[in-house]
Amino acid sequence: MGMATSAPGQEKRAAVSEGKLDEIESDTLRNAARTVSIIENAISAWNAAKVKPRNMASALERLKRFRTALVRWGAECAVLRAGRADMEHRVGMLREFVEICYAYENA
Q: Of 3, 20, 30, 37, which sits 20 to 30 A from 70 (CA to CA)?
C-alpha cells in the first residue's frame, strides 16, 4: 500500500467550530469598535487643533477612510451574525477585516 491521501475535496485547512467562530467574531468586532473609537478621538483632536500641520492632513484622510471601512464592515458582520449566516460567509467577513487592515497598513 502507498501513502494515505486525503479524501477528494477534503479541506486542507483546520476546521473551525461554530463556537470558536462566534468567539473570533466577537473579539474582532470588539477590536474594530475600539479602533473606530480611537480614530474618532484622533479626528476630534485634529478638528479642535488650532494648528494643523500639512504633513498630517493625508494621514487624517487615511484614518477617516479606515474608520469608514471598519464601520461598514462591522455593520455587515453584525447583520450576518444576527441572521446566523453560514460559516463560509462569516469566515469571509473575517478575511475581509484582515484585508481592510492590510490595505490601511499599506496605503
A: 20
